[in-house]
Amino acid sequence: MELADLLKLQIHEAIVQLQQAEKALHKQEMTHASIYVENAKGILVKLGGKIR
After folding, report:
1. Which residue windows are coiled coil (predicted)?
2. Residue range 11-36, pLDDT digits in tens
3. pLDDT averaged over every residue in the chain
4. What pLDDT does 52 receive?
5. Which domain covers residue 39, as residue numbers?
6. 3-state SS string over 1-52?
7. CA Rg, the chain, in Å?
């Protein structure tokens, strides 16, 4: 798998995590939303390291 494909996959996974966070917020599930946001943040931080 090429680097560009891996980056796209990771970006997609971060987006999915943020979508899950949004759904959790609509249900007033703040703890779950926070976990999803932290997951997305972790993915994006790792992604930033690969791009540099």
Report:
1. 4-31
2. 999 999 999 999 999 999 999 999 99
3. 94
4. 64
5. 10-46
6. CCHHHHHHHHHHHHHHHHHHHHHHHHCCCHHHHHHHHHHHHHHHHHHHHHHC
7. 12
